[in-house]
């Protein structure tokens, strides 16, 4: 990883779960060198890290939003600004390679001959549960965790997940972008053999003043989380019953 951004390059920066304090040192340094920053709506506010004159372009992809920027348009902007000799930072929430489309942006830049660096971020798959005092692993409860996207419902022709296999995997299940499809997901997990009494939780707006946490047995989760809004992370497994308090 370069300590200095190169002109004409793109740096994919994972910004963590939204709180600027959770940016890595490398991320803060990259933002301080950037000529232009393309930012998602879930990324932390980069203002205090930017040098004077840096350009910020909002390219958030809010679901079903009329002002959403397409991925093709984002790729084109990255290439355009890099070809103009600028030091480009693509700032995302969480980690760029965990449902952040960072791989797509890397490939688009590489095909255009643009040099790309990656600065990993703190993924919400781990950080959001932690903000509610939920560890995704615990030596006496589970030997692993599985992270999946819930933005496509079970039964949808676009779905590539075997939810019934996940039901018997024996790991903590962490579901990102799954609140909208929670009734279908929960039903499929129970049909697949997961005990309906399994502890479950939804953590919304982690590390913010709007933090909301719902804990309930799996069977009751869709009803209990009906008023929860994105960004939210769903945790299913024995660890969801834990609630460590912060000192």
Question: Any overview of this molecule?
Answer:
Helix 5 (163-167) links the parallel strand 6 and strand 7 (172-176). Helices cover 24% and strands 21% of the residues. It contains seven helices and ten strands. The strands form two sheets. A five-stranded parallel β-sheet has the order 3-2-4-1-5, sandwiched between helices. It starts with 8 loop residues before the first strand and ends in an 11-residue tail after the last strand. It folds into two domains: 9-122, Cobalt-precorrin-4 Transmethylase, domain 1 (3-Layer(aba) Sandwich); 125-241, Methyltransferase, Cobalt-precorrin-4 Transmethylase, Domain 2. The longest helix is centred in the N-terminal third of the chain and has 13 residues, at 71-83. The protein has helices at 25-33, 71-83, 102-111, 124-131, 163-167, 182-191, 221-224, and strands at residues 9-14, 36-39, 55-58, 87-92, 115-119, 145-149, 172-176, 199-204, 212-217, 232-236. The protein is α/β, with parallel strands linked by helices. Helix 2 (71-83) packs across helix 3 (102-111).
């Amino acid at each position: 990883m370069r300590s200095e951004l190169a002109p004409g390059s793109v740096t994919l920066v994972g910004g963590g779960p939204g709180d600027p304090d959770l940016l890595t040192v490398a991320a803060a340094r990259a933002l301080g060198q950037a000529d232009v920053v393309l930012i998602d709506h879930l990324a932390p506010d980069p203002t205090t890290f930017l040098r004077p004159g840096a350009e910020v372009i909002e390219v958030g992809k809010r679901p079903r939003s009329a002002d959403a920027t397409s991925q093709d348009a984002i790729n084109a902007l990255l290439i355009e600004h890099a070809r103009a000799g600028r030091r480009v930072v693509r700032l995302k929430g969480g980690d760029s390679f965990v449902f952040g489309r960072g791989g797509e942006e890397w490939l688009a830049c590489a095909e255009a001959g643009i040099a790309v660096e990656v600065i990993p971020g703190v993924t919400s798959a781990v950080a959001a549960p932690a903000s509610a005092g939920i560890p995704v692993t615990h030596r006496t409860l589970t030997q692993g965790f599985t992270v999946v996207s819930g933005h496509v419902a079970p039964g949808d022709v676009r779905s590539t997940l075997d939810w019934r296999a996940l039901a018997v995997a024996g790991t903590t299940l962490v579901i990102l972008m799954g609140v909208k499809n929670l009734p279908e997901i929960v039903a499929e997990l129970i049909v697949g053999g997961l005990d309906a009494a399994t502890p479950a939780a939804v953590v919304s707006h982690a590390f913010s003043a709007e933090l909301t946490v719902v804990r309930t047995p799996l069977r009751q989760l869709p009803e209990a989380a009906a008023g929860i809004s994105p960004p939210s992370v769903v945790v299913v497994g024995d660890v969801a019953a834990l609630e460590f308090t912060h000192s």
